[in-house]
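From the shared-data thread, chain only:
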Amino acid sequence: MYFFGTFEHSIDERGRLAIPARYRSAFVDGGVLRPGPEGGLELYTNAGFDTQFSTRLAEATGNNSPDARRLRRGFMSVAYPVELGNQGRILIERQLRDSAMLTGKILIIGCGDYLELWHPDRWAQELARIAALQAEADRE
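Structure, as tokens:
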């Protein structure tokens, strides 16, 4: 499945978040949630996570190199499995919610092979960075 679009949802006090209805079938077997490098969270299907992990490991010099092991540690140590509940919701671990400032209203952003979860203020900052990059590309 290819994820795209922006969706506004609320996270409840227990950390549960509804996945957009159009994408729930992709997570029927669960998924993997991990922090993204810019301040949001990345939500992968299980298959998508396997592919992303394999790709990142391939970028290193081999499974037995120190860099490959560090990459594995960095990528896997902050990843958490999620299950889709009967109401189409996932439970987000507290440490992930806190790191991404996810409370109340949040934005779910489609990013092709995964979804990103953003606090609206952080997303506004990211949109400003995107606009600056686009403006710079237009000048070139």
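The longest helix spans residues 120-139.
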